[in-house]
Specification:
The protein is of the alpha+beta class and 299 residues long. The protein is 30% helix and 25% strand.
Length: 299
Amino acid sequence: MSQELYCYLNGKIVKEGEAALSPFDRGFLWGDGVYEITPCFNGRLYRLKDHLDRLYRSLCYVRIDLRMGQEEIEKLTHDLLQMNLPHLGEGSVYRVGHWVTRGMDTPSMLARAAGPPTLFVFWRPVAVEAAAKSLAEGVRLSIVPTRRVPPPCLETRAKVTSKLNQILAEIEADAMNSLSLMLDIYGNVAENSTANFFIVRQGVLWTPPAQNVLEGITRKVVFEISSRLKIPLEERPFTLYDIAQSEEFFLTSSATCVTPVREVQGIRPSSPVPGPITKRLMAAFVEETGFDFSKYRPR
C-alpha cells in the first residue's frame, strides 16, 4: 500500500485517511465551490502563484470569502510539501488540489446563510508512464454532443466545482474510446473537458478565445513561450473545417503540459505526431518544469 500523504482540511493537517467532511457541506450537496490543481514535478511546485491568483479570481466571482489571504495559503502549501516530500519519490508528478466550498449548509438551504468556507489542500499522483506514452504517441479526440456551457450562463474563466457539463463530455468521449473535444453552442471549437486545445495552421498557433474557455495556466505559459520562440499565435474562433486544414493539434494541461493529438474526429494532422512546433513547445516545458516525461516512457 502506498504511503498516505498529509493534507489540510479546515485548520488541521492530517493524513489523507483521517480527512472527513460532513455530507451537509455545500460542495457535496450543490457543487458550490471553486478549485485549482497545481502540478508538482519531482517535488517542485510549478506556477503555484498563478494557480492561486486564479483561485482568488474564481472566489470573487462566486462570492465566497475564504477568510484567508493568498500568501497564507501559499505558505501552507509549501509547508505541506515539506511534510510530504520524503514520500513523493524520484520521477514523480503530483496534482496539488486546492478546493474551496461555501461550507456547511443550513436548514434554510440559502447560500447567504452557509459557512464558514471549507478549504481542502491535498496531493494526488499522476500516472507518469501512461502520460509519457500519450506524449510520445499522441491522443485521440472525438467531438461530443454535450456543448460547453456558454459564458452568459456560467463564466467559463472561473474554475468551479460544478463539473457535470465536462463530466458528461468525458463519458461521451470514453464511449468512443477517446478524449473529448467540446464545441460551443455556435459550433466553434471550445476545449477538452480538462484541457485547452490548440492547432497549428500554416505555421501559426490558433486557440479559442478566452471568453469561450477556461483560461488555463499552461495555456498562458504557451503564450509566453511562443512569444519567446517567435512562434505566431492567435486567439480566434475556429471550427472542425479549420482543424481539417491544420498541420498539428495538441492539448495543454497542468500535469502533462503539452500533449500531442494524433486524430480529431477521424481527421489527422498533416505533420507527423508530434509536429515540429509541438516538439519545440514540449522541449520548452521540459526546461520550464525540469521534468522530462520521455525518460519514463514504457519500453
